[in-house]
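User: For a benchmark we're assembling, each entry needs the component sequences followed by a predicted structure for the full assembly. Here are entry 17's components. Please fill in the structure.
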Amino acid sequence: MQLTLEFGGGLELLCDSVKIHNVNVEPQAEGKKLTMKHLLSWVRTNLIKERPEMFMKGDTVRPGVLVLVNDCDWELSGQLETVLEEKDAVVFISTLHGG
Amino acid sequence: MASEVVDATAAKPRGGRFCTVCNDRRPALKRPKTLEQICKECFYAVFEDEIHRVIVDNHLFKPGERIAIGASGGKDSTVLAYVLSELNIRHGYGLDLFLLSIDEGITGYRDDSLETVKRNEIQYGLPLKVVSYKELYGWTMDEIVKLIGLKNNCTFCGVFRRQALDRGAALLKVDKLVTGHNADDIAETVLLNILRGDIARLSRCTSITTGEDGPIPRCKPFKYTYEKEIVMYAYFKRLDYFSTECIYSPNAYRGFAREFIKDLERIRPRAILDIIKSGEDFRISTSTKMPEQGNCERCGYISSQKWCKACVLLEGLNRGLPKLGIGRTRGLNNESNKDMKETNGTKGLQSKQCGTLDF
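Assistant: Structure for entry 17:
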């Protein structure tokens, strides 16, 4: 499944300072839907190069990291349970850097 | 009903509900303050209007005043500069707005963020003044770090920055200085001041305006504005801001209080406003002995000691004794130990302009 992932607010520093990543992520199992929960662990394994604790805490994003799916706050779409579809755009922004 | 029609034609039904304000468009975010689900357009309107209400209700400005916006190039000050210039025009505040930036002299960090502020100068049409540590103190942070290493460097930077903003504001001949401190920052400061038992700062830190008896009062129009909304606003509006951590303090944002506030927010977003309210409601017993505010005998800056902290630190640097004013038992001022201890204990927070205790 083709997805566009964007890292901002300083999170890009954790993935080689690249802000936008066009990626191909498959659901955990055949016939299953791709959820944010799975995407997060995929990102952590495949994109985050350093200090993963800046991005995640437990199985979700670290408090203070905002997540938008297709420009919509993931708190409106079920957070970890949000189901992703082909060509979705997911944005991660840290609020923890500088004023 | 009408909503079903829109629902069927929406490009991508997610969340399946409508903006609680206009009941017409799809919501784009959940407001931490109210838990309302609102669309981008209504969000811009309520976000700007709440700041306008805070400005009006607290009489932050008078027509004709010259106002400096402390601008670091980061999210808070960038959004503040954008929103203030919008509101100034929309509501006819009659303010002369300026951007005031401090160049600490940190290669690869401040030079880059200053580029952002220079773009903001053009984007928002606000005149920019940059004052540097080098011109004010004779030292850049790069030079200070070379001398003292990566321990306590944030103490120097924090102390110097506070004065630098005041001195820059004086050069601009402004009536007031506004900073981008947001609700999260203030809640964090309340907690830290309680944890340290710093009664003097606790009683000041929730004031929306401080230093009214001094030459240049400071105010915080974002006192009730959530960091989440500031970042969402900047993101949706594609505002140009800089977000790299300071190279001399890579873990600055890992402050314990900050993390705790963010954890609380996740459980109950109102907690941030509640902590601010608690801070406001603290009443300090009239018999409590508070430090007396005087002036530094050397530079005249406001100080509760013989010499202000910047002068003590500077004296140490110039005499080749950079630890002067840092340790618990050394220093020119007999009573400065308590203060020193605080700054040492929070050096991780000091580098973040809005996370310091310098209210």
